[in-house]
Amino acid sequence: MQNFEISVLDLAPVKQEKTIHDTFQDSLSLANHAENLNYKRFWLAEHHNMESIASSATSVLIGFIANGTKKIRVGSGGIMLPNHSSLVIAEQFGTLESLFPGRIDLGLGRAPGTDGFTAQALGRNPAIINQQFPRQILELQRYFSKDNSEALVRAIPGEGLDIPLYILGSSTDSAFLAAELGLPYAFAGHFAPEQMEMAFNIYRQNFEPSEYCDQPYVIACINGVAAETSEEAHKISTTLFQAFINIIRNDRKPFAPPVDDMDNIWSPMEKNMVLQKLRYTLIGNQEEIEEQLKTFQEKFNVNELMINSHIYDHQKRLDSYSIFRKAKDAILKI
After folding, report:
1. Alpha-carbon distance 249 to 256, whole Å?
2. How many C-beta atoms surround the C-beta of residue 132 within 10 A?
3. How crowded is the C-beta side of 323, counted as CA atoms within 13 Å?
4. How far is the C-alpha of 183 from the C-alpha of 141, rounded, in Å?
5. How far apart are CA 161 and CA 168, in angstroms?
6. pLDDT (tens digit, 0 to 9) for every residue of the chain, 334 residues total?
7. Do 206 and 289 contact (CB within 8 A), yes or no?
8. 117: which DSSP letter?
9. Phi/psi of residue 265, each to 5°?
10. How far apart are CA 47 and CA 25, in angstroms?
């Protein structure tokens, strides 16, 4: 089993009976905690029109987190690029990189991060997305290049800065694109696990080395809930289960506290759907997490594991990331 990094994906979750200000303070607290535990990076994801997620102004929130930390890499997981002008994103991340040199990542996705009506409000044209997304990535690379200094349109700040680009995917389409462009690839296994194995195989088999990346670099994002005891871990994981029930029911309300019995909430069909979506979720005490990490890494052999923890109690969320750090370190010593 190869060594692998661990990182954090934060959706800036809004909890029932908490404010969005509380959410942002919790995100900063988590980022500081992850930094102290030597997590590799802290990414925030762009979503819109969801009461449960407050990371819609992703670039602004990245600046807040980077300003409140010292060394951890901070970035987007991701910016949904067709929602934006390539130039504006180049300028925003050029500004972030200029403020926090050597610490900013730009993860890029093609999905809207929202529903169809909101996607329309964002100005997306679904008829051209598959052509627009690759073109916009090339535009970003040009704007960040020193060679663009003679162009009529330049990204200032941004030009000449080393801002790593990552391609995000939840299906196999972006695996082909990341391989063709020779860029690192991150898969959203935390909500779309069905094609993760196939996507990684496609990416590795078709990867073409580039000036940005000389060999495949694979990031798997999964859900993780760890606690001192197995019983506690499964109890607090019911917040995650309820979040997925809300997705199935198209109910975007804030995240709920844990419950004693999910059978009072979901139907057998809903339970099956949720468990399918959470097939690679790691839940348990440290010993159980160690075994699950080993099993996952033996199957996927990723370079980096990015963990998303939907845990209602903030301290227990911090504790979960501490346990994952200990579990990862333990299995690599074996």
Report:
1. 15
2. 18
3. 27
4. 11
5. 21
6. 789 999 999 999 999 999 999 999 999 999 999 999 999 999 999 999 999 999 999 999 999 999 999 999 999 999 999 999 999 999 999 999 999 999 999 999 998 888 888 888 988 888 888 899 999 999 999 999 999 999 999 999 999 999 999 999 999 999 999 999 999 999 999 999 999 999 999 999 999 999 999 999 999 999 999 999 999 999 999 999 999 999 999 998 999 999 999 999 999 999 999 999 999 999 999 999 999 999 999 999 999 999 999 999 999 999 999 999 999 999 988 5
7. no
8. H
9. -115, -45
10. 19
- Output the six-digit token pair for 236: 């607090």
Burial class from Cβ neighbours inside 10 Å (0-12, 13-18, 19+) for residue 278 reads buried
Q: Which amino acid is at 133?
A: F
The residue among 112, 113, 18, 105 whose CA lies nearest residue 65 is 105
- Tell me the angle at which helices 314-333 and 286-300 cross, rounded to the nearest 10 degrees: 60
Q: State the sign of the Cα–Cα–Cα–Cα dihedral 206, 211, 217, 219.
A: negative
pLDDT score recorded for residue 319: 98
Calculate the CA dihedral of residues 268, 269, 274, 278 and round it to 10 degrees: 90
Q: How far apart are CA 26 and CA 304, in angstroms?
A: 24
Instruction: Give the helix/strand (H/E) hosting 64.
Output: helix 58-67
163 is written with which tokens? 């801002």
* Residue 296 φ then ψ, to 5°: -65, -45
**Cα(106)–Cα(126) distance, rounded to whole angstroms?**
23
Tokens representing 8?
């954090």
Task: Tally Cβ neighbours within 10 Å of residue 106.
Answer: 26
